[in-house]
Amino acid sequence: MSDSKGFLHWLFFKKWHPVPSVGSTIALFSIIGVIFVALGIVITVINNNIQEVTIYKYDQKCSPVEYNKQCSFTYKLDQMKAPIYFYYELENFYQNHRRYVKSKSSTQLSGEEISLSDAEKYCEPIIFNKDLEQWQQAVYITENNEQVPKQRKPDDIASPCGLVAKSFFNDTYELSLSEKNIELNQTGISWPNDKGKKYKRASDSESTQWIDPENEHFIVWMRTAGLPTFRKLWGRIEQDIEEGEYTIKFQNNYNPQMFAGAKNIVLSTSGPFGGKNLFLSIAFIVVGVIQLLIALAFLIKKIRAGPSFGQKNE
Amino acid sequence: MFWSKRPDFFNQPRQFEGNFKGERTQEELEQYPSNFIKTSRYNIVTFLPKSLLLQFTRYANIYFLCIAIIQCIPVLSTLNPFSAIAPLVFVLGLSMGREGWEDYGRHVSDNEVNATECVIMKSRQMKVSTWAELAVGDFVLVKQDESFPADLIVLGSAIQSGACYIETSSLDGEKNLKPKSAILESQQLYGDKNNYTDKKIRVEAQVPTQNLYELDASLFLSIENDEKLRKFQLTAKQLLLRGAFLRNTEWVIGLVVYTGQDTKIMRNADASRIKSSEIERIMNILILGILVIQISLSIITASFSSAWLHQNGSESWYLGYNDFSPNLLSFYSFFSYILLYNTMIPISLIVSLEFVKVFQAYFIEQDEEMYVQSRDKYAKVQTTTINEELGQIEYIFSDKTGTLTCNQMEFKYCIIGNTLYGQEQQQTNNIPVQNLDPKRPQSAKVHPTSEVFQHSVFNFQDMELSAILKGEGSQGEQPVNLIIQSSDGKQQIQIQKQRNLIDEYFFLLSSAHECIIQYDKNQNASYQGPSPDEITLVDAAARMGFQFTGASASEQNFKILGREKKVKLLKSFEFDSTRKRMSVIIDDNGVIKLFIKGADNIIKGRLSPNQIFLNQIVNYLDDFSKVGLRCLLMGIRILSNEEYREFDNAYNNLPDNDKRAEEVEKLTNNLEQNLTLIGASAVEDKLQQLVPETIADLLRANIKVWMLTGDKLETAENIAKSCRLIQGDFTVMRLSESSVEECKKKIGDIQETYDHCIKENRKKSFVVEGQSLQFVIDNEDLAQAFVSMAKDCESVVCCRVTPKQKADVVRLIKDRLNKITLAIGDGANDVNMIQAAHIGVGLYGNEGMRAVQSSDFALGEFRCLWRLLLVHGHWNYIRIAEMVLYFFYKNMIFTVPQFFFSYFCAFSGQSFFDDWYITFYNLIFTALPLIMRGTFDQDINYRQHVQYEEKEDVASVQKKFEEYLKYKFPTLYYVGQSKSIFTIPNYMLWAFTGLVHGMIIYFFILWILDYEIVEDNGFPGGLAAFSLTVYSSIILIADLKIAIHTKYWTWFNFVCITFLSILLYIIYVIISQFWPGTLMEYTPFTMVGTPHFWLSMILIGGIIGGLEAIIAQLQREFFTDPASEMLFKVNTFGLNQNKFIELKEKNQKQFKDSFWEPLYKQYQQQNEEVIKFSQSQHAE
């Protein structure tokens, strides 16, 4: 056989015709089962160390419930270890709605100017400044060291345009324990690379853009959620907190009743596998145990039936 | 359907006059179809619209066009329009290009045929013209070896008697010459091509039919100078067929009677059609089904959307709806969901299938085992769309001549007196024999492309016989003492010694025949005759030294053992299918002898009592007919001068009317009595290589084999026997009746025999003759009865069938039983059947390329069918069937998450995945592993070792084992025949599995990414992260599933799954990290750093992989199929063998009472079966 033919032969006819035997099935299942159970146990242990507190419908805790007002309430928290992540959570908010998801201009968000036709194409139905909320149309220009309110031109293209930007969640929070302010670090809360790459300030940002696209809260908001109930990171508490009655002061801007939803606050620590996730640990343990049981069943049957099991065709 | 409509007046009987001047008006030209032939479908202008129209007769193409259109409407489209248009254009372009190329070929061949030159006689002048210009009523001059441009009536021939010979191989596949002749009166008028009559000549002919052997016409000639025309009835004997060749005749003058589409050859041609496979048809139905599901799902989602909008639309201020109509929006979302669920029926299925089929075709064409050295041909695949049907054949319709047989006869044995000669000859047929006469060319040339095809092969060798003929040895001196007397006792001859008997025998062979001698350019002589058997006998006699050197009307010349001899030829009575005998009366030096040869039952009944050789000969004949040799008996009768004179008077005084033929028959019948038997001959119709073995294996694969031939019933039956179509234990039922009533009666009788056979579980075979077959085809009741019996017969033989009938038989089975059929043939006469069957196989034969051109697969020899069907067909069916199932599965797991996501995105039509991720899913990431599996997968191969072990004892065991596997292989063919893989329940199962797996993927990941804190840095995930994780899991599962289901791994499979699927996906993920404006932008890098991503993949891989493994294991335990049983055997065999040999070398003694003992026993057991098998093989 010549070399070239040898190569072709190898190419076409090098073959492996696997016939899994009972033995290999048992081995496979045992190994996978053990790994799964082990992983499940590790995850469970880690999960147990993660603390998570949800403050439901915090806007309802002030009376009367008024929007665009500051408000505060107290909440009893257990001891938690740093870092503690501070999330807001919205319910029944379809950030993944088709009309919503596509209503933004990534070109504009990355700091470039867009034409009217592009704005109409991508940002429908929020195209012009006049389509924005009242507070978004207002602009403050620094004149003589004083911020002077000024109205934007209503027929200019809104920057950023689109539904996602317009519906920006603009509640702000402060946390304190017996008058002592606990710092909420609001930097580094967006996905890596988003800031400065995906979202960039326009050159004349101050005069044309109603919000700074490099504002991390904005960036976090713009990364649309996958489900109608979602959390978004708002800040990080970088110190351990003690048990106590904490005061949460917040600017109550966003009205969840307008979409028949709710807004919550979530405080959570995290482990190497992220947040608390019971499902993950249960799933791994259950699947692992089932696989071990199957391996055992096959093993018992093999021992009982003798060596002929799985080789009955001989 | 592409013929232009045939005007009604074309279907009137023909009445026309010979056009002596060769001029005609336009009106006359339009009266009959022109001789211009058009088989092409398009011209430059009509190609684009017509072929596009053809493309859109496929449901799938219409569907994809609609999808592409919807995708172009921005308000409806969720995806990039380009991703729908590009594949559509690609698919259409591909098939239209092929269509165009094929039609170009038809144009070329049409032009070639139409431009062929022929000679028209215009006022006795030869005018060169083309075939296309010929018209009804023209006089045409055709020279030797030219073919006829239209159907002609022969008026005059260069041969004085008006005879001429034609070869009709292009029409009925028979290579032998057919005698035709002008009627006597016209020969007198037109026998001189330079000076023929210019008088009026008129023809009345029937509407053209397709029957090659029929002409219903009358010729009106003006004779003896009066103007009154006399009528002469014409028969098929005067008809020269378009496409046939003139042989052995210098020239003929013919009158054109049927032109163009009226000619027999065109009437026998069917319009070609597009073939699509069974699987494709079911697939189309499934696609329709899925379309219904897709539309209903879209309607459901759209109505949910409407409900959601009604309830929440105005509340959800962030959606910016003001002044909106929920109904209109949900109407839009209906179309959006049609587009999103479109992934259930991807266009790539059709593209992938085409690719796989082309690759499969490539490997069929490369197969070394289908290489035929004598013709230097590999298999060729001309229709790639039906590869998998090769694995589903239930009926094979095979031509005989040139397909099963080589169309070569071999003189095998002769029995002279009580002695059998010819037992020493060699088996091989291609060894050139020593020429007895240096003037004659060697008959059996090794090279297949020899110019003159030889009908006879001569390997006959018998030392004793040649010694006797040379006058040596003593055997020739054995006394015979045979005295043959004329009936009145006045004349007698005495044959004293064996030697004299032998002389008489061979003299009979060289005298009693209808052959003519033909010389080629080098003055080499060869014989030509009406049947190959006859040629073979004359040829054999010549080689034994009894050479026939020519004949005139009243004389025969011989060269017998070197001496010239002349005898008077008094009478000659031709062979025909009812007489089944041929005789001559010669005057041999004053002794009037009647030499006769004929079928054994005919001759036996005509012998005078007390035959001394009869018993011995009959014993031999029984043996011969069992192996399928064609036997003839030879007899002599001596006539006294008085007897002959009496006969001659009676013969000459027969009335010259319609009954003449009958009277002649009666007379000769009386004469051919009181015969004395002197010997017999056995001729073998040479089979092609491995034909009986192939047929036996095909029968074992439960394929019914039908043989269709133009031959006589007896011949056909003999061949059927020799190629094991009819075996010793078969009950043969014959149907050969000449009227419908008789036919019905006979069918009733046969039904009884048949029921009897069924009861006793006997094997049976049906032999049916052409005429009866026509009744069966035309009569609904008969057809029903025939098919119901024939379908279960192991074999069926149809003889004396026309090309059209061959196709009709195929259709009879195909339409009534709905089974997959295959037709195989080598000649132009097989074209119809090749086109009619689901699969047409053409053989490269001696009879031109027409069969190959119109076939789907072209092979070198019949034996290649074994590998084409049982190996490639079997594999391809499994490959394609599983591929289609898998395709639906992988698109199911891809669409299910999309469907459930719609619930979570307010039914808004948001796509769950990024545009290009959707496009690339089928196009790239999951395409190649599937294509590779569809190309390479094998359930089992009988070739287990690429190279045998060097150690000889091991190698021999390996070889034996392979032989055993090869023997078992045909039994696996049922898989495709019973359509056991691609079934609706199986499809449901796969679709259901897809649904379950899709749900597992979607919901598990949903729950894992619940609240979306995916990292220890506390980042929430979002839509992009969710989508990426699900998508990656789908790719993982799609590849895992295909890996689990790949039974046969090659290097390609491995590369495609790892590099061309997974690696490409990883690369694309990296690209999508930086793809601006997409959903995924800047997501992947972060996402792959999160534990949730990997934990999801591990969990899902573990669950689905585990599920699949359990199912596979349970299936192996409880539902083993023969293929995996065999595979299992192979593996344990190999395993045990290696261990055994290893240990055997180590220490043979240790076996006893050792750990390895059971293993050793197992190995022995394994070996026993193989040994048993190989022993049984040797016994055969």
From TrEMBL, chain A:
<feature type="transmembrane region" description="Helical">
    <location>
        <begin position="21"/>
        <end position="46"/>
    </location>
</feature>
<dbReference type="GO" id="GO:0005886">
    <property type="term" value="C:plasma membrane"/>
</dbReference>
<protein>
    <recommendedName>
        <fullName>Cell cycle control protein</fullName>
    </recommendedName>
</protein>
<keyword id="KW-0472">Membrane</keyword>
<keyword id="KW-0812">Transmembrane</keyword>
<dbReference type="GO" id="GO:0005783">
    <property type="term" value="C:endoplasmic reticulum"/>
</dbReference>
<comment type="similarity">
    <text>Belongs to the CDC50/LEM3 family.</text>
</comment>
<dbReference type="GO" id="GO:0005794">
    <property type="term" value="C:Golgi apparatus"/>
</dbReference>
<dbReference type="InterPro" id="IPR005045">
    <property type="entry name" value="CDC50/LEM3_fam"/>
</dbReference>
<keyword id="KW-1133">Transmembrane helix</keyword>
<dbReference type="Pfam" id="PF03381">
    <property type="entry name" value="CDC50"/>
</dbReference>
<feature type="transmembrane region" description="Helical">
    <location>
        <begin position="278"/>
        <end position="300"/>
    </location>
</feature>
UniProtKB/TrEMBL annotation, chain B:
<dbReference type="InterPro" id="IPR059000">
    <property type="entry name" value="ATPase_P-type_domA"/>
</dbReference>
<feature type="binding site">
    <location>
        <position position="709"/>
    </location>
    <ligand>
        <name>ATP</name>
    </ligand>
</feature>
<feature type="domain" description="P-type ATPase N-terminal">
    <location>
        <begin position="25"/>
        <end position="85"/>
    </location>
</feature>
<dbReference type="InterPro" id="IPR032631">
    <property type="entry name" value="P-type_ATPase_N"/>
</dbReference>
<keyword id="KW-1278">Translocase</keyword>
<feature type="binding site">
    <location>
        <position position="400"/>
    </location>
    <ligand>
        <name>ATP</name>
    </ligand>
</feature>
<keyword id="KW-0915">Sodium</keyword>
<feature type="binding site">
    <location>
        <position position="826"/>
    </location>
    <ligand>
        <name>Mg(2+)</name>
    </ligand>
</feature>
<feature type="transmembrane region" description="Helical">
    <location>
        <begin position="1050"/>
        <end position="1071"/>
    </location>
</feature>
<keyword id="KW-0460">Magnesium</keyword>
<feature type="binding site">
    <location>
        <position position="800"/>
    </location>
    <ligand>
        <name>ATP</name>
    </ligand>
</feature>
<feature type="transmembrane region" description="Helical">
    <location>
        <begin position="916"/>
        <end position="936"/>
    </location>
</feature>
<dbReference type="InterPro" id="IPR001757">
    <property type="entry name" value="P_typ_ATPase"/>
</dbReference>
<dbReference type="GO" id="GO:0000287">
    <property type="term" value="F:magnesium ion binding"/>
</dbReference>
<feature type="binding site">
    <location>
        <position position="399"/>
    </location>
    <ligand>
        <name>Mg(2+)</name>
    </ligand>
</feature>
<keyword id="KW-0067">ATP-binding</keyword>
<dbReference type="GO" id="GO:0008554">
    <property type="term" value="F:P-type sodium transporter activity"/>
</dbReference>
<dbReference type="GO" id="GO:0005524">
    <property type="term" value="F:ATP binding"/>
</dbReference>
<feature type="binding site">
    <location>
        <position position="710"/>
    </location>
    <ligand>
        <name>ATP</name>
    </ligand>
</feature>
<keyword id="KW-0479">Metal-binding</keyword>
<feature type="binding site">
    <location>
        <position position="401"/>
    </location>
    <ligand>
        <name>ATP</name>
    </ligand>
</feature>
<feature type="transmembrane region" description="Helical">
    <location>
        <begin position="329"/>
        <end position="353"/>
    </location>
</feature>
